[in-house]
């Protein structure tokens, strides 16, 4: 990897390492290798799922679109939210097949899911 013989064979020019080689060296310098990838994936997924559940729970409890909607669009917000709830009722029929969701406020769950998606991706 860059010895005098290698440079002589290449005409005196040192070959620039690829991005993959740079990343490989970066992780090797820190004592990480391919065997560490499964743990890294698990940690990434746990953190991501925690962020998902936390943001969905917060949006379910705080109802940001309802609070913001009433504050900024007071005269139309009731009509808009009623229309959204009716549409959510039609989309949430699959939730009736899951015991956990049968007694839940389905429109509120779906609206908070949409709010959480915006929060997570903002």
Notes on the protein architecture:
With 122 residues, the protein is mainly α. Helix content is 74%, strand content 0%. It has 7 helices and no strands. The protein has helices spanning 4-9, 19-29, 37-62, 64-72, 74-91, 99-102, 106-121. α3 crosses α7, α4 packs antiparallel against α5 (74-91) and α5 (74-91) crosses α7. The longest helix has 26 residues, at 37-62. The model has no long low-confidence stretch (mean pLDDT 80).
User: How far apart, in Å, are the first and last alpha carbons?
Assistant: 43 Å
Shape: elongated
What are the secondary-structure elements, in order, as H or E? Answer: HHHHHHH
Structural class: mainly alpha
Question: Main β-sheet, in a few words?
Answer: none
Number of helices: 7
Mean pLDDT: 80
* Percent of residues in beta strands: under 5%
Give the uncertain stretches in residue-range form. Answer: none
Number of DSSP-assigned strands: 0
Helix content: over 70%
Query: Compute the gyration radius: what is it?
Result: 26 Å
Key attributes of the depicted protein:
single chain, 122 residues, mainly alpha, 7 helices, 74% helix
Question: Could you give a quick summary of the protein structure above?
Answer:
The protein has 122 residues and is mainly α. The protein has helices spanning 4-9, 19-29, 37-62, 64-72, 74-91, 99-102, 106-121.
């Amino acid at each position: 990897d860059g010895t005098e013989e290698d440079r002589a064979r290449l005409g005196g020019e040192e070959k620039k390492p690829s991005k993959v080689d740079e990343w490989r060296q970066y992780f090797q310098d820190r004592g990480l290798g391919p065997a560490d990838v499964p743990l890294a994936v698990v940690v990434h997924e746990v953190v991501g799922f925690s962020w998902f559940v936390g943001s969905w729970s917060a949006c379910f409890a705080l109802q940001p679109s309802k609070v913001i909607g009433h504050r900024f669009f007071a005269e139309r917000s009731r009509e808009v939210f009623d229309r959204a709830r009716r549409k959510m009722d039609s989309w949430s029929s699959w939730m009736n097949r899951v015991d956990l969701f049968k007694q839940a406020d389905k429109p509120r769950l779906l609206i908070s899911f949409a709010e959480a998606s915006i929060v997570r991706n903002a």
